[in-house]
Amino acid sequence: MATLRDRYDPRSNGLGLLRLLLALSVLVAHAWPLGFGAPSPGQRISRGQTDLGALAVDGFFVLSGFLVAAGRGGALRFAWHRFLRIFPGLWVCLLGIALAATLTGHAGGLEFARRNWSGAVHRWGIGTLFLDTPYGRLVHGSVVNGSLWSLVYELLCYCGLAALVAAGLPRRAPWLVPALAGAAFAVIVADALHDPTTPRYHGGLGPLPVFGYVDAQLACYLGFLFLLGASAQLYAHRIPLHPALAAASGLALAVTLLGGGFSVVGYPALAYLLLYAACALPRRLHRIGRERDYSYGVYIYAFPIQQLVAHYGGAAWGVLPYLALCLPVVLLAAAASWHLVERPALSLKDIRPAVRLLTLAR
């Protein structure tokens, strides 16, 4: 039976398309709460276990772990590459929001950008901005870019993997990565035994330097998904790929979404389906996202743009017209972010940051 290593081509695969689809799924999922103050699709059918947006974020963490575990080089190089992929786009987004808020007469835009520069959200709103939207009325406050909540957990995963890389462990002891995933999975199983549909709350971690307080439950669950993807990368030669296994994973995912136990069985099933799809998608689709990766731009710009469209009454005609108004603007912002910010930043990835900083200091 062919393995993941046999089928996966790092230079030609469906991961770019999958990442874009996941980002667009978050946009679609947010249409209900942002445009109409209603629950996201999937909450009721899964008995509160997840929804379309959360499922897409879960998929992001699996693919992120799989991709970054393939990196070569030391911890400094790893950190530099992750910095370039996340922060230039984030900072421009925050400054753009701050400028737009200032120009429309809302004080506090620069403070919003300053408090959230690290990737950890320490301030959600800007004065009275978007208080009059359906979502603003739902949460009784100003939330300008709610999608940014997941970045701190992504960065924590990066920090953890960077520490392992610095110690040389992924190379000398790759088994440690699935062992850590197993430890997180043990917590998830214990939660499911307590209640298969509503995991127990584990409180907060912190305050951590820069990141502040983080939700321990989210850190464990999303960390497990990230480690699951990283383990798949490190042990790709041991993971069989077969349509029958993909079909079984799809069935397991559907059953646990409907009946409970999604985090125990559904998480691994989702991970397998995504990696299988990355290898099985037609080659003509492999170009999507390979040279123009708009997924991150869609993710960081969709929420404020959807809020803006709702503010001006763009949701008055229903869900589909609302999405039709939001989608082109979001894609335009994502394209601008990629071509003007993200791709130029990534062109610096082969510059050693320590050498570069020493040069600038002279």
Describe what you observe in this structure.
The chain has 362 residues and is an all-alpha fold. Helix content is 64%, strand content 2%. It contains 15 helices and 2 strands. The protein has helices at 4-7, 15-36, 52-68, 75-103, 109-115, 134-139, 151-166, 169-172, 176-194, 216-234, 243-259, 262-280, 295-311, 319-346, 353-361; strands at residues 204-208, 212-215. It has a two-stranded antiparallel ribbon with strand order 1-2. The model has no long low-confidence stretch (mean pLDDT 93).
Note the topology.
Elements lengths: L3 H4 L7 H22 L15 H17 L6 H29 L5 H7 L18 H6 L11 H16 L2 H4 L3 H19 L9 E5 L3 E4 H19 L8 H17 L2 H19 L14 H17 L7 H28 L6 H9 L1
Antiparallel strand pairs: 1-2
